[in-house]
Automatic annotation (TrEMBL):
Gene3D superfamilies: Transferase(Phosphotransferase) domain 1. SUPFAM superfamilies: Protein kinase-like (PK-like) (SSF56112). It comes from Nonomuraea terrae. Its EC number is 2.7.11.1. GO terms for molecular function: ATP binding; protein serine/threonine kinase activity. Keywords: ATP-binding, Kinase, Nucleotide-binding, Serine/threonine-protein kinase, Transferase. This is non-specific serine/threonine protein kinase.
Length: 445
């Protein structure tokens, strides 16, 4: 489908929901991203309606900390959303390349994303899929929230959707999502910025659900002044968390000033920009024909032709493309699409063998530090805490939160091997005595 008023240049990316095209608005040369719904999903009337609702929801949100929807078009053979093209990289890519951001930079990331969420919450919209892939970091050290593909009205009952690693306890319980649901996910992302890994890891959906529902997050790696902020945001009950992103933002400002002084934000933005610039520099930027900015988003170094088209070099990968095609819906896949190992509602889970535990990887100072990738229902990571058998993946029985932290491996001071723990722990796997020359190995990822 040709979108009137826009000239498409090339594909930026594609995913389960469709493809994203780089395009130029004919009237002023503005560079945009056009999201086309896939042919398979166009055959699903309910999904098309949800796609249309996504566009309507985002158009109501007017914030410099969200990617704007500029237009929506629907025809017999296509449905498209025209979106602002954001100059930046995904937070996921930043974490993969740079590891933990440092406390002040992490606070800046969280503040920008919370500002975008706050505007959505004021409009009665809940994001429901806050994760590093949906946060874009700009070269000036700012952050924007994108991809409202599974957003809903606050309090609306909807199928279980989201990314498992970032789903709040109430989402696992099939309870209505509210602003506090987004606060929980935002705090998980903040934790990942601070430590380089997520607080909860599991080898299957049921185990991950149990951890989010019952296990207290390990806070030992968090700077002590920030622990109350993280603990409040990760409370198991929505009523025990900040009631909205705006309320959480006020707590963030107070905690940041108390811990790092009045100048925490300029320092954090500078640090975040330093981390982002090497990655953003890999993207070429457009310059409009005839000079000046021409209203064109500064994203590529190449030139617009007089006809308003963009000459683009090969190998272009854009954060916006990744973000607007990344929404993950579990247990509500359209016909013909596999949901992997996701468990449908009500599926019984047989008692599992004792789970082994492993500490999250400790980031090293090397530039190649890579935090754990985003989990999917089929991810085979080892759980970070003991996960007893769960008989219902949809609704593990609630129990008082236990203050259980996952074991953490620490670097050894020399070649001497550590003796295995003598205290019997039936559900943990002991490391055997090393035979031969001792060596230091990284914990399993």
């Amino acid at each position: 489908m040709h979108v009137p008023g826009y000239t498409e240049i090339r594909e930026l990316g594609h995913g389960g929901t469709g493809r994203v095209m780089l395009a130029v608005r004919d009237s002023d040369g503005l560079v945009v991203a056009i999201k086309h719904l896939s042919e398979t999903l166009r055959a699903d009337a309910a999904f098309v309606a949800a796609f249309r609702a996504e566009a309507e929801l985002i158009r109501e949100i007017d914030s410099p900390h969200t990617a704007r929807v500029l237009d929506y078009a629907e025809g017999e053979d296509d449905a498209v959303i025209v979106m602002e093209l954001v100059d930046g990289v995904t937070l996921r890519r930043l974490l993969e390349h740079e590891g933990p951001t440092g406390a002040e930079a992490a606070l800046v990331v969280l503040k920008g994303a919370l500002l975008g969420l706050a505007e959505a919450h004021r409009r009665g919209v809940v994001h429901r899929d806050f994760k590093p892939e949906n946060v874009l970091v700009t070269p000036d050290g700012d952050s924007k929230l994108v991809d409202f593909g599974v957003a809903a009205r606050a309090g609306e009952t909807a199928p279980r959707v989201g990314t498992p690693a970032y789903m709040a306890p109430e989402q696992w319980d099939d309870a209505p999502a509210g602003p506090a649901t987004d606060v929980y996910a935002a705090t998980l992302v903040f934790y990942e910025c601070l430590t380089g890994h997520r607080p909860f890891h599991a080898d299957d959906i049921a185990a991950l659900a149990y951890q989010h529902l019952h296990l207290a997050p390990p806070l030992e790696e968090i700077d002590e002044p920030l622990r109350p902020l993280v603990g409040h945001g990760l409370a198991k009950e929505p009523a025990q968390r900040p009631e909205s992103a705006e309320a959480f933002l006020a707590e963030l400002e107070e905690a940041a000033r108390a811990a790092y002084g009045e100048e925490w934000e300029p320092r954090g933005r500078a640090g975040l920009a330093t981390l982002t610039l090497p990655l953003a520099a890999l993207l070429p930027r457009p310059v409009p024909a005839g000079g000046g900015d021409g209203g064109v988003t500064s994203l590529f170094h190449n030139a617009l032709t007089p006809a308003g088209k963009l000459a683009v070099t090969g190998g272009l990968v854009l954060a916006t493309a990744a973000a607007v095609t990344s929404a993950f819906v579990i247990w509500s896949e359209p016909p013909g699409r596999s949901s992997g190992s996701a468990l449908p509602p009500g599926t019984a889970v047989a008692p599992a063998a004792p789970a082994t535990t492993s500490a999250p990887p400790t980031p090293s100072p090397a530039a190649s530090r890579t935090p754990s990738p985003e989990p999917t229902p089929s991810e085979a990571a080892t759980p970070a805490a003991v996960t007893p058998p769960v008989t219902d993946a949809r609704l593990p029985s609630r129990a008082p939160v236990r203050n259980v932290a996952p074991p953490r491996s620490r670097p050894t001071g020399g070649p001497a091997a550590r003796e295995p723990t003598r205290e019997p722990v039936p559900t943990r796997t002991q490391r055997p005595e090393p035979s031969g020359p001792p060596s230091t190995t990284s914990p399993p990822v």
